[in-house]
Fold each of these.
Amino acid sequence: MNLLKLYDDLYQKYGPQGWWPLLETGYQKLDFSYPKNQTQSFEIALGAILTQNTAWLNVEKTLNNLKNQELLLPEKILAAPDKVLQNAIRSSGYYNQKLKKIKIFTTFFLSLKNRTPARNELLNLWGIGPETADSILLYAYKIPSFVIDAYTKRLLINLYGADKIPQNYHDLKNLFETNLPADYELFQEYHALIVANGKLVNLKTYKPVLPKVNRSDQSV
DNA sequence: AGCCAGGCTACCG
DNA sequence: CGGTAGCATGGC
């Protein structure tokens, strides 16, 4: 199983993804100078929490709501009334849970005082599981921690067969990390490409939904 | 008009 | 402990 070749195939098909999509930049040509500061790292982490089982478009609305009220800063989040935050979060769904998750994370974020968190510290927070922790490490802190999601697992099952690949998060993560150079830029784009591919395939049936572009491209 | 989205926790047997 | 219901909204 050549995971570097798989990366090349995905890249050939979908091109550079330019993750993470910050409000300021959106998806962009590859520019690994972002995040440029702690404020942008914080925005990425909130986005990672908000997008749990939620479409990114709905998350963007929440981030814009917060930004427009000048609340997209850790100190402001903690000072804001619950009702205001719930209304801002509403478009992302699960607004009761996500309010709690965001407050817990924000308190932790401030306690770091610009230090990079350890993976276990993130996992110990209520509301942060392995995928969210790895997304925060990889995109907010540029740590080469490979992100596994439902798309990743499904793609490997499709390509190699369910009996050939590990099924749990930890082993899947390890599969990528032991077969790739520990390069955060590679990991960032790889995960983004898997998501780009995954969005074109129905999650339950594995059947492709109608591609929006490039029907003639070879499928991956 | 359903189905689904870049999960996680709590609870069930 | 492995499996899964519940959490909520908006786009297609």
Note: Residues 23 and 60 of chain A are 8 Å apart (CA to CA).
Amino acid sequence: MASTPQERDTDATAPATPAPGHVISIRDLKAACTSCSMRELCMPFGLDAHELAQIDTLVSSRKRLRKGEALYDLGTPFEALFAVRTGSLKTSVVAEDGREQVTGYHMLGDIVGLDGMATDQHLSRAVALEDTEVCVMQYDRIEPLAQHVPALQTNLRRFLAREISRDQSIMLMLGSMRAEERLAAFLLDLAERYRRRGYSSTQYLLRMTREEIGSFLGLKLETVSRLFSRFQQEGILRINGRDVTLLDTPALRQLCTSRD
Amino acid sequence: MASTPQERDTDATAPATPAPGHVISIRDLKAACTSCSMRELCMPFGLDAHELAQIDTLVSSRKRLRKGEALYDLGTPFEALFAVRTGSLKTSVVAEDGREQVTGYHMLGDIVGLDGMATDQHLSRAVALEDTEVCVMQYDRIEPLAQHVPALQTNLRRFLAREISRDQSIMLMLGSMRAEERLAAFLLDLAERYRRRGYSSTQYLLRMTREEIGSFLGLKLETVSRLFSRFQQEGILRINGRDVTLLDTPALRQLCTSRD
DNA sequence: CGACTAGTTGAGGCCAGTCAATGTTGGTGG
DNA sequence: CCACCAACATTGACTGGCCTCAACTAGTCG
């Protein structure tokens, strides 16, 4: 249980937990990034001490979201990028006829909101899957800062480019994998991401409902449910509601690449 | 026929057509962008005359590709971005087990190669669908130039962000549309892109095989073929090999959003 | 001419969707 | 405390859309 993702980095200097929805002012955020445990996965990645000091004022505020609350929605003006500090979010796009496609699941250290840079309006929505806190990086503050800190410029581009290749892997999954392969790939992706964050890669909590997972994978919720049951029956994993334990990772890996 | 996409902007100052594969030297490329008919869709978009003059040396060379030739492949070091000058390309990702997923079709004015910025290696491949010429924008030249031309910085980010939202629309298509809806959306997307480039939006040539279209849409080639036949029978379009004429665009549009 | 590639069309099978019944969990208010 | 409800999840029976396999045509190129 100790390895389940949970708040590890409670900021000792932070004031008493503010109410959800509360925007934490900049005055409480000196050295926001320097002291953050996610700095090596997040925007400050690879910066030296000097550069780090310069971007430490990047985070103008933080924002708390209650479960189900939207960080931004279709048409929201693009003003900032967000770094997930605690909790998690899903992003999704919606068609005119109302169909929704989940396009991403974002956890600790992930940057969300990049899509808004295309048109100065967000073309997708981001919704908290649990009580969540994000760092707000005002875009008109990033821009001039990046002019003077090339490493930040580079990181920004890399996050954009990484998002592109991430999306392309998802296309590969949606376009050419069968249901069981998709779910296996999804579970392994989660495992890898938890591992990189220092959590268990074999036991974690799903933050999405079966329906949301299905939307992400291009499947119906019943199919997702059935697959979980089957995987469990085959001894590949143990599942109890949203609590997953991977028992046979090699088998999962093999499932992903099984043009049988 | 006059409205079929074809080379419109043959550069009068260019030397005699070099052999395919030939790399055209920078000496022939003064004012590459200023005089290009695609400048308002391509990297110079929105730049004023002064800025345009500054980025006019961005294109260090051009490259000709024969049909089927690869511009870059999985693992190719990332060194440049490419702007399609004539012809067209497909981009695709390949899984370890060899499965290929076409992730994009790129025409006149499109920027390709953005995915390489994530890891300094390309994670996808780009292959010419016909004899094609691209402008080569050396990345180590873009970087310093962007430092001094903010508008270029902005454009670069916008192209990256636009690619992200493009990919997300494709995810929506792959994840939540049925076969006929996907093909309809694909045909309308092509129509719109040809329109913006000054070509007919109701009559154009497909540059991809049924198999490539299928891979892009997450379908098998037989399904694509059958759908074309059905659409023709229903009077929505006329198709003869790769020559498409859209007869009932509203019907196509309705097909895309038909949760019947 | 034969070999090859691209495309069309048909027959049949299977994977995932649909519809429906039931179980489980967590929150709310009497 | 329990009753109640809504949201989430599981499982079964059935259906159908797309895939698979296969035969055939047309065009191209050596």
Note: Residues 209-211, 221-222, 225-226, 228-229, 241 of chain B lie near DNA strand C (CB under 10 Å from a C1').
